[in-house]
Amino acid sequence: MDTSNRLGGTEFAPDTAYLNTSNCGLLPRGAVAAVQELAAANATGRGGRGAGSFESVDAARASFGRLVGVPAERVAVGSAVCVHVAVVAASVPSDGEVLVPEGDFSSLLTPFSVRGLTIRQVPLERLAAAVDARTALVALSAVQSADGRIADLPAVREAAAAHGARTLLDATQAAGWLPLSAGEWDYTVTGGFKFLCSPRGTSFLTVTERAQETLAPLHAGWLAGADPWRSTYGPVTELAPDARRFDEPAAFLAYHGAERSLALLEEVGVDAVHAHATALSKRFRAGLAEAGHDVVAAADSAVVGVPGLGGRQDALRAAGVDASVRAGNLRLSFHLYNTDADVDRALEALAG
Q: Could you give phi then psi for residue 208, rounded to 5 degrees?
C-alpha cells in the first residue's frame, strides 16, 4: 500500500484503505506493544508493578491536555463519554433546560434525558440563535457523528456567555485532527478510541476551574484523594484540589496504550494532522462532485457524509475500503494514516 503521504512514519500498518476512524481509530505499533507488555506482565507477575502504572495514566492525562490546550490539572480520566456526561448532567438544576442539536450522538444526550431534564433540540445551524434565558447548558458535538458537519463553535460560545449558560463540547469526532482549545468550554468530553488512536476504555473530561465548583465527584474513590496513598481506608476526607477528583478508576491496559498513542499525536502535531486529513477529504469531495454525487455541507471536515450511498458499503468493502453508514449516509473519515491512494480507491469503488 502507498505510504508516500502517510503521517506517523511506520507506526501504522493498515492492510486496507481504512477510512473508518469515525467508528474506531487504528492503534499505532507503540500502543499495541505497550498493551502486550502489560498483559504479559499481568500474566506472569513479573515487574512488581501490579496491574499497571499510575504514571502511564498521568502521562496520558497530561498529553491529552497538551493536545487540547489545557493543563493536566484540568483533565479527568475515565472509560466512556456517557459516564463523563452523566457527571455533568448531575450538576444541571432540575428545572434547567439543556439545548442540543437535532440528531446529535446518543451518548451525549441520554444522560440528560434519563435524569428527567428538559432537552430542547434544534437544527445544528440554528443552535447559537436558539440559546435564551431558559438555557442552563448547551451540549453539542464539535463534529457531528452522522455526517461530519462542524458546528459554529465561536457563535455557540458567544451566545451561551450572553445568557449565562454553561457549555459542554463532545470532541470525540474532533480531538486529534481538529485544533481545539478545551479551556474555552466549561466541560469537554472525548472518547479516546477514535481520532486519538487509543484503545477502547479511554475517555477524557476537561473542566474549567469555575465549573469544578459545582460539579460533584460522583465516582470518587481512594484515587480521588489529595494524597491517594493516605486515603486507602475509610472515607476520603480530603479530595484532590483539581480535576483528578472526577476520575473514574482507569483501565491500565487501555491507558498504557493511550500513553503511546497520544505521545505520537503530539509528535506529529494536530495542525499537521488537520492539514493532511482535510486535504484528503477535499480530494474525496472533489471526486464525488465530478461523479455527480452530493455530500453533506461540511467544509474542512475530516468526516464526510454522503447521502444516498449508504447501500454501497459492501461494494467498498469488496474493493478493500473500510467505511461506515450512519443515519443513511455513507460515512468516510480521514486521518494521519491515510493516503491519496486510499481516496482514489474509494472513488474508483464508488464509480464501479
A: -70, 160
- Detail the DSSP E strand segments found in the chain: 17-18, 75-78, 97-101, 118-122, 135-141, 166-170, 187-191, 203-207, 303-307, 321-322, 324-326, 329-333
**What's the pLDDT score for residue 47?**
63
Beta pairing class for 203-207 and 187-191 = antiparallel
pLDDT digits over 241-275, tens only?
999 999 999 999 999 999 999 999 999 999 999 99
Residues 6+ apart with CB under 8 A from 338: 6, 17, 18, 19, 277, 280
Number of helices (H) and strands (E) in the chain: give both, helices first.
11, 12
Cα separation, 68 vs 77, in Å, equals 14
Element (H, E) at 11: none
Nearest to 71 by CA among 294, 241, 191, 254: 241
**Cell numbers given for 22:** 469515525
The structure's pTM equals: 0.95
| Helix, strand, or coil (residue 14) | coil
If residue 37 lies in a helix (H) or strand (E), which one and from where to where? helix 29-44
